[in-house]
Design brief:
Layout lengths: L2 E6 L7 H8 L5 E4 L8 E5 L2 E5 L12 E4 L4 E2 L1 H14 L5 H4 E4 L3 E2 L2 H12 L13 H9 L14 H16 L9 H15 L3 E3 L1 H10 L4 E4 L23 H8 L6 E9 L2 E3 L12 H9 L12 E3 L1 E2 H11 L3 E5 L9 E9 L5 E2 L10 E8 L16 H14 L3 E5 L7 E3 L4
Parallel strand pairs: 1-10, 1-11, 2-5, 2-10, 5-7, 6-8, 7-9, 11-15, 14-16, 15-19
Antiparallel strand pairs: 3-4, 12-13, 16-17, 16-18, 19-20
Organism: Chryseobacterium kwangjuense
InterPro entries: Adenylosuccin_syn_GTP-bd, Adenylosuccinate_synth_dom1, Adenylosuccinate_synth_dom2, Adenylosuccinate_synth_dom3, Adenylosuccinate_synthetase, P-loop_NTPase
EC number: 6.3.4.4
Length: 426
């Protein structure tokens, strides 16, 4: 088993980047398998914080090779800005040497972003609250077979093919009274960013990864967004545009499921989500505000306030089931420290009186049934040993282990890279 997977089990923002950054030194390769610059993995190093968008979270490990896989979509402009920001953050890093990009990853074009804005603001379309980064447009054009890929940038007719798409999209967008940047301006910025992209290694990453595995190399596959935002299995239509599950890692990287080992699933001790969509345990009172402020629950990319709710066990069980999670990582337990009690949704009661304990898609009138658990006191962010955790927090962890069927093996105790404890649950 050469490839392990890390993915989120809720609606994103669970703390994947921090965990990957922590464990990636035990791997030879970290690889992003889905999504694009709509992701935001925040990492804290040397008391500084950076948000990675398209780059794998192992980019800080100089002995680790990093891969942007075939299942992703790449925005050359955002990519250039991210690389420059990374070098400003840590001038010793040389991503040109330890980053490989799939030739088959699809490109995000400037008009994709403009089309995203147009659809979000047009009442004729379903509004779901996207980040307006053009991700859905890139994926939809991929499915329509109307897009270009990273490998196309070396084609002699690349510029003319891109201009044809940009001009076509621009004509559509120009119908109306919308204020648009000039076509010349967005084209110039895009082609300059493509020239920057050419500095980086580009190859068929599925072959690269499988060859590495035949040599005994270990891969850590990194998912963006989370299971409940999966295009097929999430809370459709309020989902992302790619496969965010463990199965998506196989297709997005071209690695057989037979070669998958551990599947790490990350969840907060409560729930958050951004944008629209079902959120049965959402809090609309002062408690939600308190958790949001204490947990700094604002979008890594957009700064949008995240919606807050109690931990949803039926949704979590569903995510564990469809991903085959083998180990759980619990984050943000420190945010709930000091509360007299915490709530957990254990099941849903439907209108006809039936009970659901594993929730995929539920009717809107499903009522979450909450269980009250004792809260825990004390500052846990400085603890170095799991044995020193408050007894009530240990009880909370034991409750989750019994309910979920997948052991909680790591506990994050704060935002810092070293603020994580290995538990004796496996």
């Amino acid at each position: 088993m050469n490839m392990d997977i890390v993915l989120g089990l809720q609606w994103g923002d669970e703390g994947k980047g921090k965990f990957i950054d922590l464990i990636s030194e035990g791997y030879d390769i970290t690889a992003r398998f889905n999504g694009g610059a709509n992701a935001g993995h925040s990492i804290q190093r040397n008391e500084k914080r950076i948000t990675l968008k398209s780059l794998p979270s192992g980019i800080f490990m100089k002995n680790v090779q990093n891969v942007i896989g075939t299942g992703t979509v790449l925005d050359p402009i955002s990519f250039r800005n991210e690389i420059l920001n990374l070098k400003e953050f840590d001038g010793s890093l040389e991503p040109e040497k330890n980053l490989v990009i799939s030739q088959k990853a699809h490109l995000v074009l400037p008009t994709h972003k403009l089309l995203d804005v147009f659809m979000e603001e047009n009442p004729e379309y379903t509004t779901i609250g996207t980040t307006k980064n053009g991700i859905a447009q890139a994926y939809s054009n991929k499915i329509l077979r109307q897009n270009l890929r990273v490998g196309d940038i070396e084609s002699p007719d690349f510029e003319s093919r891109i201009l044809h798409i940009l001009e076509r999209d621009y004509r559509f967008l120009a119908n109306g009274d919308r204020i648009l940047p000039s076509l010349e301006e967005i084209s110039k910025e895009f082609f300059e960013a493509v020239d920057f992209l050419k500095k980086f290694q580009r190859t068929e990453t599925e072959i690269f990864l499988n060859k590495a595995m035949t040599k005994g190399k270990k891969i850590l596959a990194e998912g963006s967004q989370a299971a409940m935002l999966d295009i097929d299995h999430g809370t459709y239509p309020y989902v992302t545009s790619s496969s965010t599950t463990a199965a998506g890692a196989s297709s997005g990287l071209g690695v057989s499921p037979k070669k998958i080992g551990e599947i790490f699933g990350i969840t907060k001790a409560y729930c958050t989500r951004v944008g629209n969509g079902a959120f049965p345990t959402e809090l609309f009172d002062g408690m939600g505000e308190e958790i949001r402020d204490k947990g700094n629950e604002f979008g890594s990319n957009t700064g949008r306030p995240r919606r807050i709710g109690w931990l949803d066990l039926p949704a979590l069980k569903y995510a564990i089931m469809i991903n085959g999670v083998t180990q759980m990582i619990l984050t943000k337990a420190d945010v709930l420290s000091g509360m007299k009690s915490v709530m957990v949704c254990t099941h849903y009661e439907l209108e006809d009186g039936t009970i659901e304990r594993i929730a995929g898609t539920l009717p809107e009138n499903a009522r979450p049934v909450l269980k009250t658990l004792a809260g825990w006191e004390g500052e846990i962010s400085s603890l170095k040993n799991a044995s020193d955790l408050p007894e009530k927090l240990k009880d909370f962890l034991s409750f989750l282990n019994a309910e979920l069927g997948a052991p909680v093996t790591y506990l994050s105790t704060g935002p810092g890279r070293e603020q994580i404890l290995k538990l004796n649950s496996k």
